[in-house]
């Protein structure tokens, strides 16, 4: 999984090729395995694999909030409870799905937007929402010009620096990348690499004693969306932390704690307490 985190990137240009029956089977298997997972707040998520009936239709309307995706043979998507905790759990579980697909060489992309007219809501449990739709296919050897332009505009490969994202013991002491001997350095490095809507990386982490406290910084606003995608981003960050902690054989619990330190402008999300 660590290697999948290090190598994954968004794919917006796919080979003009349908998925083989064998690969469709593999994807269905991954989807049903990941669907068994429960998020940190106890929700399950319904996941779906859908072949794209418009894969070869140049007139098909565009999906997602931004970016142009070409030759998409299939999608994975999912539905969750429309609540803060449902969306965190969705991000946590869906990122596992994305990483499992990347691990096997499939190209993927998180696409958020308004999918109300996309028939997807028909799959969802009553009261659930479909926050994202993710194209899946074989990555094209060469990115389209549009994709290259979008990546350049978003500085898609760039990430905020350690000292912008992570803090040690107090919000006044940023953690620097030079601090390689820090106990959670590897874990934090995996959070730094996580994907986020518009690459805003709104997660902030305070490490204090045996706990990693996660916060959401909404200063760089996202365009208005039907679901709170920033909260989905928080689930992604928690997944990356969990993968890092599992890799180093830590035992831990993810909880919301009344006594967690509060920041003046960032929203408190959850704490990972090392056991
Ligand atoms: C929750 C979420 C929603 C996203 N929505 C879109 C989208 O609507 N359109 C798009 O082109 N990319 C979308 N992305 C992809 C991000 O732009 C991308 O992850 C980010 O720029 C970092 O690039 P990388 O994935 O190649 O590391 C989304 C990513 C996440 C995590």
Topology:
Elements: H1 2-7, H2 21-34, E1 46-51, E2 74-81, H3 84-103, E3 107-108, E4 111-112, E5 128-129, E6 132-137, H4 145-154, H5 162-165, E7 166-168, H6 185-192, E8 203-208, E9 211-216, H7 229-247, E10 252-255, E11 267-274
Parallel strand pairs: 7-8
Antiparallel strand pairs: 1-2, 2-5, 2-6, 3-6, 4-6, 8-9, 9-11, 10-11
Helix pairs in contact: 2-3, 3-7, 6-7
Bound molecules: flavin mononucleotide.
Descriptive overview:
The protein contains seven helices and eleven strands. By secondary structure, the protein is an alpha+beta fold. Strands 1, 2, 3, 4, 5 and 6 form a six-stranded antiparallel beta sheet that branches. A hairpin with a 2-residue loop joins strand 8 and strand 9. Helix 2 (21-34) runs antiparallel to helix 3 (84-103), helix 3 packs across helix 7 and helix 6 (185-192) runs antiparallel to helix 7. It is globular, with a radius of gyration of 18 Å. Residues 9-10, 64-67, 109-113, 132, 154, 156, 195-199, 229, 232-233, 236 line the site of flavin mononucleotide.
């Amino acid at each position: 999984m660590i290697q999948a985190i290090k190598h994954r990137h968004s794919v917006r240009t796919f080979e003009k090729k349908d998925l083989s029956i064998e690969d469709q089977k593999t994807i269905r298997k991954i989807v049903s395995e990941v669907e068994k997972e429960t998020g940190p707040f106890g929700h399950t998520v319904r996941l779906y694999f859908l072949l794209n009936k418009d894969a070869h239709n140049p007139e098909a309307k565009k999906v997602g909030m931004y970016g142009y995706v070409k030759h998409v043979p299939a999608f994975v998507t999912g539905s969750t409870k429309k609540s803060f905790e449902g969306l965190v759990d969705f991000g946590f579980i869906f990122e596992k799905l994305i990483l499992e697909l990347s691990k096997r060489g499939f190209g993927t992309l998180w696409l958020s937007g308004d999918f109300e007219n996309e028939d997807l809501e028909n799959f969802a449990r009553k009261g659930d929402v479909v926050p994202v739709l993710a194209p899946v296919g074989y990555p094209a050897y060469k990115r389209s010009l549009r994709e290259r332009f979008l990546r350049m505009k978003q500085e898609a490969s760039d990430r905020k620096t350690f000292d912008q994202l992570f803090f040690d013991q107090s919000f006044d002491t940023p953690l620097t990348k030079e601090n390689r001997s820090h106990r959670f350095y590897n874990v934090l490095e995996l959070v730094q690499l996580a994907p986020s809507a518009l690459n805003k990386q709104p997660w902030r982490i305070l490490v204090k004693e045996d706990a990693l406290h996660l916060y959401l910084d909404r200063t760089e606003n996202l365009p208005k969306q039907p679901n709170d995608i920033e909260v989905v981003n928080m689930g992604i960050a928690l997944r990356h932390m969990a993968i890092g902690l599992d890799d180093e054989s830590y035992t831990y619990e993810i909880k919301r704690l009344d006594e967690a330190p509060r920041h003046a402008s960032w929203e408190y999300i959850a704490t990972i307490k090392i056991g």
